[in-house]
Amino acid sequence: MIGLMRTRYSEDEVAVRDAFFDFFANECPTTTVRAAAEGTGFDPALWSSLAAMGAPGMALPESLGGAGAALTDLAVVADVAGAHLAPVPLIEHAVTARALARAGGHDDLVAELAEGSTLATLALRPPTGDTARLVPAGAVADVLLHHCDGVTSSSRGNAPGIKLPNTADLPLAHRVISDATAIELDTDGWNRTVDEWRALTAVAYVGLAKRAIEIGVAYTKERIQFGVLIGTFQALQHGFADAATSVEGAHLLAQRAVWALETEQPGASRLAGMALLFAAESARFAADRSVQYHGGYGFSEEYDVQLYHRHATAWILQLGDPAAEYARLADAEFGPVMGAA
Amino acid sequence: MIGLMRTRYSEDEVAVRDAFFDFFANECPTTTVRAAAEGTGFDPALWSSLAAMGAPGMALPESLGGAGAALTDLAVVADVAGAHLAPVPLIEHAVTARALARAGGHDDLVAELAEGSTLATLALRPPTGDTARLVPAGAVADVLLHHCDGVTSSSRGNAPGIKLPNTADLPLAHRVISDATAIELDTDGWNRTVDEWRALTAVAYVGLAKRAIEIGVAYTKERIQFGVLIGTFQALQHGFADAATSVEGAHLLAQRAVWALETEQPGASRLAGMALLFAAESARFAADRSVQYHGGYGFSEEYDVQLYHRHATAWILQLGDPAAEYARLADAEFGPVMGAA
Amino acid sequence: MDFSFPPEVEAFRTEVKAFLADNFDESMLDVTHDGTMHVPELHAALAAEGWLAGPVPKELGGGGRTALESIVLNEEMQLARAPIDAMGVTVITAAILMEHGSDHLKETVVPALLNGEALTSFGYTEPESGSDVAAAATKAVKDGDEWAINGAKMWTTMAHIADYVILLTRTDPDVPKHKGLTFFLVPFDTPGIEIQPVPTMATERSNATFYDDVRLSDDWRVGEVNGGWAVMKTALKYERGVAGGQFMSPPVIDAGIDWATNHERADGTRPIDDLAVRERLIRAQIDVEVCRGFAYHCADLANEGAMFGVEGSMTKLFASETFKRHCREIHDMMGAEGLLTLESPEAHHGGLIEEALRHSPVTAIYGGTSEINRNMVAEGFLGLPRAR
Amino acid sequence: MDFSFPPEVEAFRTEVKAFLADNFDESMLDVTHDGTMHVPELHAALAAEGWLAGPVPKELGGGGRTALESIVLNEEMQLARAPIDAMGVTVITAAILMEHGSDHLKETVVPALLNGEALTSFGYTEPESGSDVAAAATKAVKDGDEWAINGAKMWTTMAHIADYVILLTRTDPDVPKHKGLTFFLVPFDTPGIEIQPVPTMATERSNATFYDDVRLSDDWRVGEVNGGWAVMKTALKYERGVAGGQFMSPPVIDAGIDWATNHERADGTRPIDDLAVRERLIRAQIDVEVCRGFAYHCADLANEGAMFGVEGSMTKLFASETFKRHCREIHDMMGAEGLLTLESPEAHHGGLIEEALRHSPVTAIYGGTSEINRNMVAEGFLGLPRAR
Are B118 and B143 within 8 A, CB to CB? Predict the structure, then answer.
């Protein structure tokens, strides 16, 4: 690949973005998000349509039924899926399928995953005993990848778990692990998989955050109080300006992290961890400002902005406490804490 | 003492405040602060005048030549001294003298300290070897109290150290310790001394912060840009409002900490630690906003607001890293960290 | 300065603690899971003690409790996690009625409110007027002996279980907006009223209420015709000051400390042994002590008869903004487990922290947004010129 | 998206690193301790490489370096802690002159600036016009063939060692303020100029400059008469974008990590083993990566000939606000030892962190305050209506 330093989407990427943006705008209005929330947090029809667009297999090798696109292309879809809070576990599915493809020896399964006819996910945290708690897409996925004591295993055929009531109505469920088989994916390979999840989730967070700001700005350009548009108040303008600046920074960092993973840059893992933390914080800040500047309506279920607030809260927590993520990055940067048990 | 829940200065306290406010306004304009900064960071003439007002011995027992006033009275003076960045180590001197008075057996020395003819201070951090580094008022004090391995000691007659160039031109100096004698002040007694320093310094911080806001607000009510007073910009108003709210909160907390020490409430030590951390943060925020809203002039040496910024930075650091203070409070609250070396 | 309470107030605190131990435990909050933040038994018990009437002056038929006693009651209830919403609306409405209401209202409604038989609700905000509350458009027109009321209110929380709403109306559209407002107390059984639920992003529900040719006699008017703004000011000051909200954080912090001490992260360490977590918890505890200072300060001012407009704004601003941060940080600390809502039997501490996280944004909005409170501090405390 | 540099830019980065290793070490900063943030040998060496001329187009006599190469030079210099102020003012002024200057200026002054023989300074701000730079009151009046200039400028940093100042003047007081401005390049040896030092709370000094009937021929005019605002816009965009300031933090963070690793607190623990400290350091490193993204983004835009007004504002806003926080947190970490200034031989890392702490506030002020940049993002990026 020839170096270009192109910090914006290329023409091809813009074309992908536009196609998927139209797709989600049509197929995934917030009524769809709300409807999914009432059920498992997953919309099978949306997933089928998305599969028909080729998204699940987009970044899988052509030899395994995929489209052979780059992770950076998949990120374009994650961006617009995030903007629409799409109730489909595209990121979990894609990174799990890529892990199986890298491991080798699972060609038939990967082909099913590329098609989207089978749904895969991963336990982001190691199971305790035979149970992986609060697995993303655990309520709907057929195939589960997990990692414990240096061994990555895949299990299939266990019934999806029951969705647990949660902040953003995500399809979170505990999964009992049985009939798992080890796959050829060592700790580095597993870490790479989680890093892909981190970087793509960071990109989705940016999509979410930009949309949250758009919704808020549009509201303040319509709402009149004290005889003027509230969008003319400097305090609101500065709150939005800080949020937008942070989100633009998150966008550039998240895209760079995806690119670094795709092109196997040194430091790619570090950037992926950083991107997720920063994008989550930016998105939460953006959603918070947007709710606040809606006044009471921001808090009402009827308005969409609260959906963005709840999703912004939830996504990163599927991985665990952000403080533990900072500590993990610090260990890599500064070595382990001396004096720790 | 009969419970009153009086969160404002009493009439007596207002009288003390007014007297000392006039005193500092007359005797300690910022030209005095600047002149002291060129030298040792101490103004002996101001100290003499302050001694003539009875401040050094104010909160010492009458039997030892003091005025027998409460710590809450001394706090009133610390408040206005802080507001004027007075280049006198009143807090260090007073808490050291009170420690010696509590220890007993140093009546002549305490009487000198009550008079103010001799200047005392304390090493807030334990000496390393025979040297106490960066001692507050170390460049000017005659008597030094320090605490090491459970023993509090007093030394006198060592020459004051050389002032080290520092952020706020404070009279900081290393002190070589020799001819120290242990005094009857156990670790609890020493901790109480440092807690008095914390609480009174918190009060001084509040004085500093209120003045920093006043200076900033006054500037924005005079400065015109874009054809209007910059004080009419909502972004500036909200920055000042957040600062003022924080400083009012710090005021109420710091005064409560002093009262709790004076009346030996359970939890007094906790409040003292909390008050210092919160007041320092509030004051730094207030000074930062005030500098920022001065624009370039806030950065110029000619304007007073930068003095407030530098003092706000420095005072708490004489004790050490605030993170270590949070950790100390956490140890008291949650017990020691498990797994720590 | 003297931050000790008078002995009789300390005695009252002991009494309140005993009352709460006897009359409240967190399982009673289960009834609030449908979104109605009201525990009827607790409200009745408070009324039986005479505490709903507490802050209303004795000579007006109230409990004659001092502002110091009110804050103590408020503090202890919040620390115990007992809902204070119904108490707040009762006390504020009763105080408004005692100060501005007709004899009819003082004699019939106030006693029913104070003895817990009747509940009321706030009807200030409208679809088109939130922060700009003085822009209320709900019309009240004199028609013979009656008033005819037409319009809509938003955020009439508890309307669906309440007997009354204290309603801000426009009686003169041709004068500056603050000068054409009039208050009424409106019984919800008056014909022409419709109540629609407004679900929220948190558990609680609120209501929109609609008024279609609602007919009232002049007895239900509160304060002067076109004198509504004077009533409003009193109401807002109560709402931002002693009316509560200063101690929202402690139950969340305590639950967080419990979690941090008794759970392990994936790597086997406890959050409580992470100095970053400890620092955040100590900072949260410091904020609580600051809120306590503000609460006592407002009570001291109120106790001496002083108004505390700006101090109330500071209290509300600081308490709600820090509460939001505390919820966020403590919720994060729980990682994925924190996502479980109160509907899950596995949720830690009954889902308290997760629920607080979703509830917290509204605390910086209702009863005066943080932006409005900052405006008030800038103008009223710092003397800055009116913002452009 | 492709965040890799073209091979020739990577090669240039290698070249820059080698240049800095040969031509700069931190001891050279000792000359800046009098407050003049300029290292003449370094400036001369940069000029000798042709790098001062770098970003100026080749056909205009510049180095023809791409924006990508400029950002790489800027980045490496900042990472090495080499002052970029003189380079910045040189490049911006040269670019302005090449775009708007007379042939006289292009032929005489530009070469002298680019080969390092001459230094220049900015003369935009006045005592009464800071953020409102278009309100400049310094008058330039045409008098026969000459211009007569009278007025005063603030923050003419480096004026005392410079040969020129690029001066914003008012040539028509009777039209809207943006439409009556004209730029001049003024040689400091012109009679009637006085330079007074302006010391600051940090180490650096700036200057106030006074102009008393300063006479210039029309050759010194830059841009159209009353066309000064067009020139100003170019200047500001350069200043907020590629002109630097995106990598102020890394030297401070590195020095902080060094401190945290090699020193003990009073209790014998190392700051680097405190998870609260570690989290703050990682957050700071994340901010640096965000700044890097902004820097490369602006360079990419510039490289394609796009203007990056709003992106420059975001970069400046984010970089300076986070720099302030980094300085504060890292300075705090050193406790009392951090108070020692560069004048103390005991100061850690030559007092770098303490100096940065005192310097940091101005970074959110000069070249466009954070408030002005937020206004620009709100209006230019979010399309919000002009603030009231």
Answer: yes
Q: Tell me the average pLDDT across B300-328.
A: 97
> How close C277 gets to chain D, by Cα (Å)?
8
Q: Which residues of D touch C277 (CB under 8 A)?
A: 275
Task: Report ipTM for this prediction.
Answer: 0.97
The verdict on C386 touching D (C-beta cutoff 8 Å) is no
Domain limits, chain A: 11-185, 189-334
Q: Does C268 touch chain B (CB under 8 A)?
A: no
Residue ranges of domains in chain D: 7-119, 121-226, 245-381
CB contact under 8 A, B168 and D125: no
pLDDT(D282) > 80: yes
Class of domain C121-226: mainly beta
d(CA C154, CA C169): 13
To which CATH superfamily is domain A11-185 assigned? Acyl-CoA dehydrogenase/oxidase, N-terminal domain (1.10.540.10)
How far is C-alpha A277 from the chain's CA centre? 12
Across B188-291, where does the E strand assignment appear? 224-225, 228-229
Rounded to an integer, the average pLDDT of B215-221 is 98
Residues of C in contact with A291 (CB under 8 A): 361
Structure-token pair, residue C10: 């300390």
Q: In terms of CA atoms, which chain A residue is nearest residue B238? A: A235
CATH 1.20.140.10 fits A189-334, yes or no: yes
pLDDT tens-digit series, residues A222-276: 999 999 999 999 999 999 999 999 999 999 999 999 999 999 999 999 999 999 9
User: How large a percentage of chain D has pLDDT more than 90?
Assistant: 77
Contact B324 D335 (CB under 8 A): yes
Domain spanning D245-381: CATH 1.20.140.10:
yes
pTM of the model: 0.97
Closest residue in chain D to residue B328, using alpha carbons only? D267
Judged by average pLDDT, the poorest of A87-96, B287-296, C313-322, D302-311 is: D302-311
Interface size between C and D, measured as CB pairs under 8 A: 15
Distance CA C190, CA C177 (A): 27
Own/partner pairs for A155-164, CB < 8 Å, 24+ apart? A155/A179, A155/A180, A155/A181, A156/A109, A161/A135, A163/A39, A163/A40, A163/A41, A163/A139, A164/A134, A164/A139, A164/C339, A164/C340, A164/C344, A164/C346
Q: Where are the beta strands (DSSP E) in chain D?
A: 120-123, 139-143, 146-153, 164-170, 181-187, 193-199, 205-217, 221-222
Quick one: pLDDT band at residue A341, thresholds 50, 70, 90?
very low
d(CA A75, CA A260): 12
* Number of other CB atoms surrounding residue C191 within 10 Å: 8
CB B207 within 8 A of CB B180: no
For residue range C70-89, what is the model confidence (pLDDT) as tens digits? 899 999 999 999 999 999 89
CATH 1.10.10.10 corresponds to the domain D7-119:
no
